[in-house]
């Protein structure tokens, strides 16, 4: 059976989730394109349903044989009304992420990355990608951050968000309370001085806090962290994603030497 009507209730639900960047009522997050589907297959999220045009089903036949999920054929016209991007590639996947707790993401020699007020989806997704690349064990998105379900964040993460445990929408007060009890070393990136990154010890259990560009960390979160600054030659500060990536690289360098 092929879905052809743009008024189909299931397609309307998927369209709303894709275009608003919010999950469906079932908690499904919509990932668009064969690349993100392939990355999801390497990850920990459940693949609930796949929507594909006839052309995409033929072109990506081998990829679509891999998931243990219902595959729903959708006409090109109906699919075009559902996709978020203008250059859709004929595939949408409805994904369901696991649910994690603080204990899940901070056991053992953990390296947490905590985002505070990072609303730019490109920055948030890039941080997720760097976090995986440099050995972080989990991500925490505090309240007010970009949503994991946003398609731009998914694409910027290049699939890393499918493999890293995360918490989302965490109230700052809850995060402060947990961090105070965690017995972790807590470092907050700052453009206004602090301990040099080159003198920061990232060995052992650590949390790296990154704030939004311009405003930086909120006062509530900064109060529990040792400020860390990245030495630069002539620029005053770095893009939030760049700064976090540089710090994560240094953390990885130290931790691999242990």
What does this entry look like structurally?
Helix 7 packs parallel to helix 11 (240-257). Helices cover 35% and strands 22% of the residues. The strands form two sheets. The protein has a seven-stranded parallel beta sheet. The chain has a five-stranded mixed beta sheet with strand order 1-4-3-5-2, with helices on both faces. Strand 7, helix 8 and strand 8 form a beta-alpha-beta unit. It is elongated, with a radius of gyration of 20 Å. The protein has two domains: 2-96, 60s Ribosomal Protein L30, Chain: A (2-Layer Sandwich); 102-257, SPOUT methyltransferase, trefoil knot domain (Alpha/beta knot, 3-Layer(aba) Sandwich). With 258 residues, it is α/β, with parallel strands linked by helices.
Q: How many β strands by DSSP?
A: 12
Strand composition percent = 15-25%
Q: What CATH first level of the largest domain would be assigned? A: Alpha Beta
- Placed side by side, the strands forming the largest sheet appear as 8-7-6-11-9-12-10
Supply the CATH superfamily name of the largest domain.
Answer: SPOUT methyltransferase, trefoil knot domain
Oligomer: single chain
Summarize the structure.
35% of the residues lie in helices and 22% in strands.
Write the layout of secondary structure elements.
Layout: E1 2-3, H1 9-20, E2 29-32, H2 34-41, E3 46-52, H3 54-59, H4 61-64, E4 70-74, H5 76-80, E5 91-96, H6 102-105, E6 111-116, H7 121-133, E7 138-142, H8 151-157, E8 166-170, H9 172-181, E9 185-189, E10 195-196, E11 206-211, H10 219-222, E12 226-229, H11 240-257
Parallel strand pairs: 1-4, 3-4, 6-7, 6-11, 7-8, 9-11, 9-12, 10-12
Antiparallel strand pairs: 2-5, 3-5
Helix pairs in contact: 7-8, 7-11
């Amino acid at each position: 059976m092929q879905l052809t009507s743009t008024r189909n209730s299931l397609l309307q639900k998927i369209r709303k989730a894709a275009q608003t960047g919010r999950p469906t009522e079932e908690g499904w997050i919509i990932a668009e394109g064969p690349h993100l589907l392939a990355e999801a297959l390497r990850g920990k999220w459940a693949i609930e349903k796949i929507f594909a045009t006839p052309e995409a089903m033929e072109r990506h036949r081998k990829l679509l044989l891999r998931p243990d999920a219902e595959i729903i054929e959708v006409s090109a016209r109906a699919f075009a009304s559902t996709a978020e991007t203008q250059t859709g590639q004929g595939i949408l996947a409805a994904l369901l992420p696991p649910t994690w707790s603080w204990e899940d993401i901070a056991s053992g020699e953990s390296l947490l990355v905590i985002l505070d007020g990072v609303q730019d989806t490109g920055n948030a997704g890039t941080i997720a990608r760097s976090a995986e690349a440099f050995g972080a064990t989990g991500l925490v998105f505090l309240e007010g951050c970009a949503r994991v379900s946003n398609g731009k964040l998914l694409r910027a993460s290049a699939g890393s968000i499918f493999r890293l445990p995360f918490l989302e929408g965490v109230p700052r007060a809850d995060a402060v309370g947990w961090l105070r009890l965690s017995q972790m070393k807590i470092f907050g990136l700052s453009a206004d001085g602090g301990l040099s990154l080159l003198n920061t010890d990232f060995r052992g259990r650590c949390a790296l806090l990154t704030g939004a560009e311009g405003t930086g960390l909120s006062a509530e979160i900064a109060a529990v962290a040792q400020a860390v600054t990245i030495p630069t030659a002539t620029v005053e500060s770095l893009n939030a994603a760049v700064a976090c990536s540089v710090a994560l690289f240094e953390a990885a360098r130290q931790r691999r030497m242990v």
